[in-house]
Amino acid sequence: MLDGRVLARLAAGRTVVLVTGTNGKTTTTSMIARALGGDGQVATNHLGANMPDGITTALLDAPDLTLAVMEVDESYLGQVAAATDPAVIVLLNFSRDQLDRVGEVRTVARRVGDAVAAHPRARVVAFADDVLCAGAGLRSASPLWVSSPSCWTGDAGVCPRCDGPVSHMGLRWACGSCGLERPPGDWALVQQKDRPDGGWSARGPDGVEVPLELALPGHANRLNATFTIAVAAELGVAPAVAAARLRGLEQVGGRYRTVTRPGGTTRLLLAKNPAGWAQVLDLLDEGPGRPVVVAVNSREADGRDVSWLWDVPFERLAGHPVVVTGERASELSVRLAYAGVPHRLADDAVGATRDTVGAVDLVGNYTAFHDAARVLT
Hints:
With 377 residues, the chain is α/β, with parallel strands linked by helices. The protein contains 13 helices and 17 strands. 32% of the residues lie in helices and 20% in strands.
């Protein structure tokens, strides 16, 4: 309030990386900061305070660091980019989330595209397999594309250029009206299944390929790591060095953390929209029959509208013992009933996990996740 240009003053003289998108911002921000040198080398808001005040605070806390990696809420990218003159803008993905706060997802993607176009000197690293993300990335003069088949295409039916129909054909997508199509990836997440370690690697330009040996689970985190290695390479860090720095990262802001409790363990997972749930369901499929506690709230930070529950393929929870809790447990219970998934209701998410013997997954949307994480810390 005292200085309207405080963010610009704090960012001056720094190399700034801005990370935005619907899902994966916090994890990817933490990964990039770690790949570029980690604590003591990089100013970052990796715990998720991603609006201008949180970014300002993160820069105030690290006045002497010349590298800054900042997660940015999609709605504030234009404002933050105007103040920080970023060297790199990372576009992870765009899907429906908090519709009552941020609006329709195509409108969000267009605003992000406007921010990209306003900063032609920034290197834009964007996801080629997300139609809306690609549309925003194409507003850059020289985007760098990251590629891996997406498990969520529920928001990818309309062309970001002409509003024509988009069709998906194997690994490709294309607009049937204007011909816009998936850009070729500069960096790709690839798998060689004959390798004993699962064979996942990040493959870049000129034949560069580095194995991904991650403690963080799942396809989404392998893709986040590929983004990280691409960004690090743009800023002068060798891909092999960046990949090595990611190996010891086991949790980010409590996400993916496993807590030991009397009688078993609880793994904490965050899922706050249909695209995020698609990623979490892949993780849950790796433990068939494992109990799952699902907690859903609808506070301001979550978005008041929980109609997104009907777009999640909860049918995939069949075979898991399921407990439902949170402020919107009744709506979630109705959705699971239509999905044919037997479940019971509980008053408290943490209490429900403590009542379970053995390993259990606790999946919460934003405030439900953080409420549980605070108790289990």
